[in-house]
Amino acid sequence: MTMTVEKRGVTGKAAPAGRPRRRDSYALFLLPGVLAFLAVIIVPFLMNTYVGFTDWQGVGSPSWTGLANYRELMDDSDFWASFRHSLFMVVAMAAVPTAVGLVLAAALFDYIGKHFGSKVVAVLRACFYLPQVLPIAVAGIVWSWILAPDNGSLNALLKAVGLGSWQQDWLGDPDLALYSVMGVMVWVQIGFPLVVFMAGLQRVDPQLHEAAELDGAGWWRRFWHVTLPQIRPEIYVVLTWCTVAALKVFGAVYVLTKGGPGGATNVPSYFSFTTFFEKTQVGYGAAISTVLTVIILALSLIGLKLQTRAEERA
Amino acid sequence: MLTTRRRVVATAVLTAGALLLTSCGDSDSGSSGDGKTLKLWHYEGPNSAMGQAWNEAIKEFKATHPGVKVEFEEKGFEQIQKTAPMVLNSSDAPDVMEYLKGNASAGLLSKQGLLTDLTQEAKARGWDKKLSASVRTTSVYDTNGVMGSGKWYGVPNYAEYTMVYYNKDLFKKYGIAEPKTFDELTAAMDKFVQNKITPLANAGAEYPAQQYLYQLALSKADRAWVDSYQLYKGKTDFHDPAWTYAAETFADWVKKGYIAKTSSSTKAEDAGVSFIQGKSPIFFSGSWWYGRFIDEVKFDWGTFLWPDTQLSPGSGGNIWVVPKGAKNKELAYDFIDITMSKKIQNLLGNKGGVPVAADASAITDPKSKTLIDNFNALSQRDGLAFYPDWPVPGYYDVLVSQTQKLITDSEKPDGYLDALQDAYDKGAPKQ
């Protein structure tokens, strides 16, 4: 079958024997995409990289300073603090949602689906996915109301159930703010892995579960030894995607805390934004963006490599 | 004849070239216009005093310039703040636009040659006579983009200043008279704390917190201190008596409960609403709240200038600038002239704004009269001290971030002042 397809041209007619295949004709279809990629990704990236080697306020002519911005970056404690916060965001946006999403997906698929039917599963799945549909600005404003110190609904709820001593300044306490933002991001993210894993579970051969069940494996052992290995490609995709999202998170920090209090929730993308637009240190901001892009690119490639290796093993 | 491959390559090169040319913009941005269209941008809300005044000015302009079309675009504050340098560098620049005053904004653009020198127009049309010295400070910029001297690059039509808003009903309820001295103000705050009321509305995530702090510093400062800090006419030492007093007093006020420990993450809107809802009896903030309080506050309220001090945060308002690449500059000058006319200035004053060239007898609304009288008192004693975030680009974020630390007690006053000094020294022009 494959051979037949390869010998046919775009019209479906068999290519004449002895003539090379006309790959050039396919190149035309790639052209718009390549041009758009050049104009939207490559050219701005190269320009950003160039600007990162200059001292520039965004207007006038940039002056070439070589590696000065990168040297300054190495000694900038705010920059490194923002990267440490990024690692916390990776936990909140990739690790926790992936783990919780897996358990929830398996529970919905194996338990809720069997006992309450597919409609209940569909409704619950939609509910978990809802935060992904909401614009982050809307979600952020709503959560800032919920977490407000004086009249926020979380503190009001704690007081109402007799846990008044647990009330906190969730976004204003530097020891708590990062964890509060992380909590919001877990809520935002959880729907994405859940939906991907549920789609993955659809393609797992039920006979594998039945065989394991006959062998006396309980739910947890079936989940660990059958479900997990079967949906490993989905896990890699989700982890890579969510890690990248966590490293470039911006909207939630901007709406919820603006990097505060006292820089406690600052992340590289927000740090870059303020350096660009508030401090008008465009060269330095570009250097931060370049470092961030390189890190994201490296992590994405590692993720893709791991995924490919896992698929080959499977 | 081109082969398919060559044709593909040629198309790609041409398209990429066209894209690059498009992104570079039109180099002929300074070409003259037809004199038939005025392209105008501002970001005042239609219900604000300024928005209403500018809309009236547009009507007046149309009446006095028959056949000229006004292309007005209402922009967002952030939109203009973040993109102005790029827009002014392109052929899309308007003929006249509202822009932010200060070294880091209008000063930066003037230094880069993106704004038109208005010096001749200011003299010819008498704008220089209409503006008081302290209001005029933000109109002129030197070759380094530092305000206070040099050429005219902008014209403010209104002013703004900070004052103490207070809830007369709550003061009456707890038997507190309007404070006339600083000691009476602190005594009033003590009384509210005793009654389990946090007296000051505050917002640590935005400007109100830093304005409390700056006002405290100003109460121990003089004009030379302001000039040193804002205009770099001398060395600014953040461990001097004024800044030290401000940081220590602010931290003390948090400890005493005058300022809520939980206000580190709240925004200016939260602080304003807290005053409007009668939860906080005192709010120290700008005249930009005045019109809204007139509309929304249900209790009896009043204002007074910060007691026992000559200086307060305040300045000329945002300014009209004419981009270097504007196509119809004469029309732009005419429009600015109309906004400076008595008719528009009086309207601005009666709608809750602070006009800079109004006819005092034409302001009939009593609340507006108080607002303008207080401004005149401040202006006459040369008391406008600008805003704490002006001297250094990005200093607003530094002040927010560091003052949050003072509120949450994660930094002591000494460390706080060190951080301010460090950021100031990095950003201020080298002397």
Automatic annotation (TrEMBL), chain A:
<keyword id="KW-0813">Transport</keyword>
<dbReference type="GO" id="GO:0005886">
    <property type="term" value="C:plasma membrane"/>
</dbReference>
<feature type="domain" description="ABC transmembrane type-1">
    <location>
        <begin position="83"/>
        <end position="303"/>
    </location>
</feature>
<dbReference type="Pfam" id="PF00528">
    <property type="entry name" value="BPD_transp_1"/>
</dbReference>
<dbReference type="InterPro" id="IPR000515">
    <property type="entry name" value="MetI-like"/>
</dbReference>
<feature type="transmembrane region" description="Helical">
    <location>
        <begin position="235"/>
        <end position="256"/>
    </location>
</feature>
<keyword id="KW-1133">Transmembrane helix</keyword>
<dbReference type="InterPro" id="IPR051393">
    <property type="entry name" value="ABC_transporter_permease"/>
</dbReference>
<feature type="transmembrane region" description="Helical">
    <location>
        <begin position="282"/>
        <end position="304"/>
    </location>
</feature>
<keyword id="KW-0812">Transmembrane</keyword>
<comment type="similarity">
    <text>Belongs to the binding-protein-dependent transport system permease family.</text>
</comment>
<keyword id="KW-0472">Membrane</keyword>
<keyword id="KW-1003">Cell membrane</keyword>
<feature type="transmembrane region" description="Helical">
    <location>
        <begin position="87"/>
        <end position="109"/>
    </location>
</feature>
<feature type="transmembrane region" description="Helical">
    <location>
        <begin position="26"/>
        <end position="47"/>
    </location>
</feature>
<dbReference type="GO" id="GO:0055085">
    <property type="term" value="P:transmembrane transport"/>
</dbReference>
<dbReference type="InterPro" id="IPR035906">
    <property type="entry name" value="MetI-like_sf"/>
</dbReference>
<feature type="transmembrane region" description="Helical">
    <location>
        <begin position="176"/>
        <end position="199"/>
    </location>
</feature>
<protein>
    <submittedName>
        <fullName>Sugar ABC transporter permease</fullName>
    </submittedName>
</protein>
<feature type="transmembrane region" description="Helical">
    <location>
        <begin position="121"/>
        <end position="146"/>
    </location>
</feature>
